[in-house]
Specification:
Structural class: mainly alpha
Distance between the termini: 27 Å
Order of helices and strands: HHHHHHH
Oligomer: single chain
Number of strands: 0
């Protein structure tokens, strides 16, 4: 849900970003697509990385990657900076999804694996809803040129999750 928050919050502040950075329609379209394309690449890369260094470590790295990229998105001063940050965020998001799916599938009992993976998949819309609520709340109290930056700053929250994952989750026996 937190990863989806970072990925989908972009759609709720795209108009403010367009106006603040003076973007044209092509730039807006590329920005809107970049994270999703990068997420596919990140998923493939993180799957290979998870086989090499472990699911938990890969999840930690990908969470930190998309959390930092979200923060840097909010600090972007032009199109190119924002595009780079959104690509990095997509790589992290896709990587997190891939490694998290592996971890859940390996820990879940065969008779509950479908429900466990369904719960993981069902968290993405929750993140989208949280992003919509946060964007609406910020838009109501701060200017548009600040609200889009603040919504991305909230993306640091997943870094706290990475800390918990590091301390509490162990590699599944199948990986060890």
């Amino acid at each position: 849900a937190l990863a989806a928050f970072d990925l989908f919050s972009f759609t709720f502040v795209l108009g403010a970003i367009r106006d603040d950075l003076g973007l044209d329609a092509n730039q807006v379209g590329i920005l809107a697509s970049a994270s999703l394309v990068a997420a596919a690449v990140g998923g493939v890369l993180a799957g290979a990385l998870a086989d090499r260094i472990g699911r938990v470590r890969t999840i930690q790295l990908t969470i930190v990657a998309y959390a930092v990229a979200a923060l840097l998105s909010g600090l972007s001063q032009d199109y190119w900076q924002l595009l780079l940050c959104r690509v990095l965020l997509g790589l992290g998001y896709g990587g997190d999804w891939s490694a998290s799916s592996l971890l859940v599938a390996e820990y879940a009992r065969p008779d509950t694996r479908g429900r466990a993976l369904g719960a993981l998949s069902g968290a993405a819309p929750v993140g989208n809803i949280l992003a919509a609520l946060a964007a609406a709340g910020l838009a109501a109290v701060v200017s548009p040129d600040l609200s889009w930056r603040l919504i991305f700053a909230i993306g640091l929250v997943p870094a706290l999750v990475a800390f918990v994952v590091r301390r509490e989750v162990r590699e599944p026996p199948s990986f060890r």
